[in-house]
Amino acid sequence: MSLLKKTFQGAIKISIRNYSANTGLIKPPKILITGGLGQLGVECAKHLRGKYGKNNVILSDIIKPSTEIFNDGPYIFADILDFKGLQKIVVDHRVDWLIHFSALLSAIGEQNVPLAVRVNIEGMHNVIELAKQYNLRIFVPSTIGAFGPDSPRNPTPNITVQRPRTIYGVSKVHAELLGEYYHYKFGLDFRCLRFPGVISSDPPGGGTTDYAIAIFHDVLRKGHYECYLKPDTRLPMMHVRDALRALSEYLEAPNEMLQRRVYNVTSMSFTPEELADEMFKHLPDFTLSYKPDSRQDIADSWPQVFDDSEARRDWNWKPEIDMDNLVKLMLKEVKEKIVANGL
């Protein structure tokens, strides 16, 4: 393993340039992103287009994109519940890598379980079979929500009892196990990262950890935030830049370096109170109140501290953005978004 680590950077470059063992062509991968208008999709497309070229990353969703997103690079309609439609996209665009972001998040999924089953489970069946049929490298994100109240919470190791109690978490455990099965049964190049709460300047999208996004929007617009979690609720978090860098580095890592197909990744853990204390250093006059709701029960079943030592060991994962830098970045990015949107 030490020899592999010494040649890690060179191995990554080789794996990117010669990603197709069947053809031997030296060219970047053609990447399809499903659920592209969710929290990670647009930023992920920008990140990967910077590495592989604008036309090699195809963003897709069932929603009409903004003019800005449409002009940024290839955008197509893709319904993950339409298997033949997905087949046509892979063939027509000669797709090599599939990044599957389509999913209903934790709090939204609890409000519409039948729809969450269709999108999160049936959709996963379609993309995993698609990847097998066309020999695609497939990335599926998982989550701290894949753990439950029987899991050790501080720290939560890579391999442990899971047993989540939300349909979102259940669907992610299903995705992890199905992907691992397809890897060992069929040789599918399946890759999965369990992300903590991912913090970006985009408006919150229905996740339990999204208070850490909403607080910046509400404080900068209204000077006050009412938090739906208790002040001492500790959860793992990371800025979107670290999340995308983890995704990119993991996708590029040579198969021989990966001892697992599913890894925990994280940057930090904090509570609403600790986040507010850091924000008070920059905005001393805002006010904060707490009114816990049903999302508190979800948070109480999730990890408090994520153990990502296996990702650090196998493919040299290391976060770059700490809590101080996260707050500075979010204040700057959310201010810019509010100004741009005229709010």
From TrEMBL:
It catalyses: L-threonine + NAD(+) = (2S)-2-amino-3-oxobutanoate + NADH + H(+). GO terms for biological process: L-threonine catabolic process. It is an enzyme of class 1 (oxidoreductase). Pathway: Amino-acid degradation; L-threonine degradation via oxydo-reductase pathway; glycine from L-threonine: step 1/2. Its EC number is 1.1.1.103. Residues 31-265 form the NAD-dependent epimerase/dehydratase domain. Pfam families: Epimerase (PF01370). GO terms for molecular function: L-threonine 3-dehydrogenase activity. Catalyzes the NAD(+)-dependent oxidation of L-threonine to 2-amino-3-ketobutyrate, mediating L-threonine catabolism. This is L-threonine 3-dehydrogenase, mitochondrial. It comes from Papilio xuthus. The gene is LOC106127771.
